[in-house]
Amino acid sequence: MSPMYFSFTSAFILGMMGLAFNRSHLLSALLCLEGMMLTLFIATAIWSMTLNSTSSSTIPMILLTFSACEASAGLAILVATSRSHGSDKLQNLNLLQC
User: Fold this and answer.
1) Does the keyword field hold Electron transport (predicted)?
2) Distance CA 35, CA 39 (A)
3) Are 19 and 32 in contact (CB under 8 A)?
């Protein structure tokens, strides 16, 4: 495995581990998701540059668009929960009480 692929894989796995193990605040979960999406964006951008194909050059832009939509929806949820519950702790959120 080349060092470039190892670094992308380890960055993605670190984001997944942060999402799985650090479940105290919603903001930290959103940051881990954003790190995973940026890792995927950089990996697909480098992959499309190595292929030298015009058909695969739009894939990173579509992924970046979905990442921006995910970030905006996550921030809207963060603002809504901090206004309604007073904090962004995930332990205070319960779907049965909403």
Assistant:
1) yes
2) 6
3) yes
Residues 6+ apart with CB under 8 A from 38: 67
Q: Is residue 78 part of a domain?
A: yes
Q: Whole-model pTM above 0.85?
A: no
The pair of structure tokens assigned to 54 is: 């015009």
pLDDT value at position 97? 60
Neighbours of 15 (CB within 10 A): 20
Tokens read off for 69: 């939509």
pLDDT per position as a tens digit, 23-49 = 788 888 889 999 999 999 999 988 888
The three-point CA angle 2-61-21 to 5° equals 60
Q: Which domain holds residue 39?
A: 3-92
* Per-residue confidence band for 95, with pLDDT thresholds at 50, 70 and 90: low
Question: Does pLDDT of 98 surpass 60?
Answer: no
Closest CA to 36 of 13, 70, 61, 4: 13
